[in-house]
Amino acid sequence: MAVFEPEAEGIVLDAEETGGDIVGRSPWALAGRRLLRNRISLAALTLFLLIVVVSFGAPIYAHDIAHTDPFASNVTGTIKLNGKTVDVIQQGTGKLGLGETPIGPTWSSQYFLGADNQGRDVAARVLYGGRSSLIIGLSSAALACLLALLFALVAGFFGGFTDTIISRLMDLVWAFPVYLLAISLATVLLTSAHGLNLGLFTLSASSLWIPLLIIGLIYVPYVYRPIRGQVLSLREKEFVEAAIAQGAGSFRLIFREILPNVLSTVIVLLPLMIATTILTESALSYLSIGVQAPQASWGTIIQDGQALLYTRPWVAIGPGIMILLTVLALNVFGDGLRDALDPRSKVRSR
Amino acid sequence: MRPRSLFQLLALFGVAALVLSACGGSSKKKSSAAGGSGGTLTTLAQAAAPGSPDPQINYTLQEWQMLIMTHDGLTAFKKAGGLAGTQVVPDLATTIPNPTEGGKTYVFTLRKGIKFSDGTTLKASDVTRTFERNFAVHGPTAGTFYKTIVGAAACLKTPATCDLSKNGVIADDANNTVTFHLTSGDPEFLQKLAVPFASILPPSTPMKAVQIPPPGTGPYKFVEYNLHKGIKLVRNPFFKVWSKDAQPAGKPDVIIQKFGLGPEAEVTQVENGQADWMFDPVPADRLNELSNKFPDQVHINPLTADYYMAFNVRVPPFNNLDARRAVNYATDRNALVKIYGGPKLAVPSCQILPPNFPGYKPYCPYTKNPGSGKWTAPDLAKAKQLIAASGTKGASVKVNTDTTDTNKAFGLYFVGLLNSLGYKASLQALSPDLQYAYCQNSKNKVQFCWSAWSQDYPAASDFINILFGCSSFVPNSDASPNLSEYCNKSVQAQIDQALKQAITDPTGANVKWAAIDKEITDQAGWVEMFNPKQLDFTGKRVKGYQFSPQWYFLLDLASVK
Question: pTM of the full predicted structure?
Answer without folding.
Answer: 0.80
